Please model this.
Amino acid sequence: MTRVQANLLLLLSGAIWGAGFIAQSTAMETLGPIWFIGLRFAIATLVALPVALWENARAKTPLRRADAAGFVLVGLALFAAAASQQVGLLTTSVTNSGFLTGLYVVFTPILTVLFLRRRPHWIIWPAAFLATVGIYLLSGGALAALTLGDTLTIVCAVFWSVQMILVGVFAVRSGRPAALSAVQFFVCAVLGCALGALAEPISLAAIEGALMEILYAGFFSSGIAFICQNIAQRYTTAPQAAIFLSSEALFAALFGVLLLGETIPPAGYAGCAVIFVAMLAVELVPELLRGRRAVPAEA
Model:
């Protein structure tokens, strides 16, 4: 897979997550946030398991214990991100949540430098800034006073960054993106159902009321989108992946217009354009600079 194909796969994940944001918001009208996480990732585990078994049958070497432990760490980071975002939506607006979650485009390159000692391409820094500005404009260009939900969503953005960095490490090192997906989904499903059983009431009527949201989030937002992310990150960097996944905010606004009849203000269209420019910059600038260096060498 080429880097361009990998980035297009990440763009697909962003589109699926953008539509899934609506499902996440409406599901909590009848179901608790932790139960929603547990049930959606239980479905995602069933989606990923056949792919993981097929991948394992084709593998030439057994999965190392260190990589399996790394998969569990990815699952813990994913659960922390999903839980803090879902609980945060109870006490913050969708506008604030969309913007603050998108801060992972800034946190990811910073954490990559701090923990992996890897310098991303210089274009990542201005592109991350542009993507953040674009998400801000797309969210309406204004933030209310920070609530507990806002704080939880900022924590969520940090954990999303950790999850992306860990995926970049273990998906590449193990060569098992489907196994990584299945394990991280299973960890989230177990933790979500266990904590939900302890902390939240549950009933068959509540599950039936949120069934369509659970199925969409489980099959598409969790199963398909995260598998695409894990596969794509074998061929690109975590900071670059964060830029393309930030398109989630763009697609969330688009699906809000198409499915919920919402409107995008002029600042929102400007935000869409800025996010698009950030993604183009990440994709094209390294290629253009590489081409310029190659010409003198050939001459």
In short: Residues 3-298 form one domain. Residues 295-299 have pLDDT under 50 and may be disordered. The chain is about 80% helix and 0% strand. The chain has one domain: 3-298.
